[in-house]
Specification:
Elements (H helix, E strand, L loop, with lengths): L1 H22 L2 H7 L6 E11 L7 H20 L3 E6 L7 E7 L4 H8 L3 H4 L3 E11 L5 H8 L5
Antiparallel strand pairs: 1-3, 1-4, 2-3
Keywords: Signal
Protein name: YCII-related domain-containing protein
Pfam families: YCII
């Protein structure tokens, strides 16, 4: 019985090791900038209510249209991996971005292209974040399940 259990354990370990080796795709990992763990550095941006408290609804609408257009552009350029609003909270946090750039300075330059941020209607906190290099791959699936664009 012990021999049978040991044999089964060895087979299971062998299959597990084979599966891990067989699924690694070096070309994909390299194309995504993955390190040995399949991870890479990003810049996490927390958007919060800015110092410019506009009351002109037309101007606010115009700035948010520009904000959404800029999001689309950054996605197409491969710079924006994740974006989305946050629920109401006591910290005035409005949303998040995960930018596929290495430095805070690169992130700041991209954020200045957003009219809602450059107008100070939104302000950004930026933090280095280590996450899966495969994150950008979800976007192709999202496009297949999105019925309406915001």
């Amino acid at each position: 019985m012990k021999l049978l259990l040991l044999s089964l354990l060895m087979i299971a370990c062998g299959i597990s090791t084979q599966a891990q080796t067989a699924t690694f795709n070096k070309a994909l990992a390299d194309s995504l900038g993955a390190d040995q763990y399949g991870m890479k550095m990003y810049q996490l941006v927390i958007l919060k209510t800015g110092s410019n408290q506009l009351t002109d609804k037309e101007k606010v609408t115009e700035l948010f249209k520009g904000h959404m257009a800029n999001i689309d552009k950054l996605v197409k350029d491969g710079k924006l991996v994740i974006a989305g609003p946050l629920g109401k909270n006591d910290k005035q946090y409005r949303g998040i971005f995960v930018l596929s750039v290495k430095t805070k300075e690169e992130a700041e330059a991209l954020l200045e292209t957003d009219p809602a941020i450059s107008s100070k209607m939104l302000e950004a906190e930026i933090y280095p974040w280590y996450g899966s290099a495969a994150l950008p791959k979800y976007l192709e699936y999202h496009a297949q399940i999105e019925q309406t664009k915001p």
